[in-house]
């Protein structure tokens, strides 16, 4: 498979389409990132204090520009999740390869941000099923990790259905902060 940072792949099934986030996704994604019910499920661990709660077009545009900057420097990939039924972006998936001195080394770290009306186990399974298998080769990793807090019952149900298991291991941030509530899928 080609370098994900040279040629960002597109994934689709009958329900969803994943492609790199574009500037024109701003208005749809603003509905996601201004959704108070959704933001509590987003993973902002190790993100320099960003809580991903955006309430203005300007702030959403800045986030999209930053995601593109990170892609250009091979930091991470941010895919828009487009619903084929509603013809709109209903969330994003971020993925990157993580090397560290903790358990989460050689890991594809996945962040899933969904609008609250899509935070349902069956929808999450349909979305993640598109990208899990390619993640191992795209990000040269032997496991995938994602965060799900206790209150994210639908997300946890979906992760378990996909073969993820909860780990007590802590992800250690750049500044030594310990983060928990991670689920892992091994290749």
TrEMBL record:
N-acetyltransferase domain: residues covered: 17-162
Name of a matching Pfam family: Acetyltransf_3
Entry's Gene Ontology molecular function annotations: acyltransferase activity, transferring groups other than amino-acyl groups
Protein name as it appears in the record: N-acetyltransferase domain-containing protein
The species this protein was found in: Amedibacillus dolichus DSM 3991
Lineage, top ranks: Bacteria, Bacillati, Bacillota, Erysipelotrichia, Erysipelotrichales
């Amino acid at each position: 498979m080609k370098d994900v940072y040279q040629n960002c792949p597109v994934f689709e099934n009958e329900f969803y389409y994943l492609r790199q986030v574009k500037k024109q996704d701003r208005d749809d994604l603003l509905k996601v990132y201004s959704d108070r019910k959704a933001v509590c499920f987003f993973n902002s661990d190790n993100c320099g204090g960003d809580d991903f709660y955006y309430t203005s077009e300007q702030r959403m545009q800045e986030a999209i520009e930053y995601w593109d900057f990170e892609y250009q420097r091979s930091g991470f990939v941010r895919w828009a999740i487009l619903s084929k039924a509603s013809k709109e972006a209903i969330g994003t998936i971020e993925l990157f390869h993580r090397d560290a001195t903790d358990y989460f080394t050689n890991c594809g770290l996945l962040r899933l941000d969904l609008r609250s009306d899509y935070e349902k186990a069956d929808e999450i399974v349909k979305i993640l099923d598109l990208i899990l298998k390619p993640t191992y080769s795209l990000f040269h990793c032997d496991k995938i990790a994602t965060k799900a807090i206790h209150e994210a019952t639908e997300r946890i149900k979906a992760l378990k259905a996909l073969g993820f298991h909860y780990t007590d291991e802590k992800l250690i941030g750049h500044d030594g902060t310990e983060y928990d509530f991670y689920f892992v899928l091994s290749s």
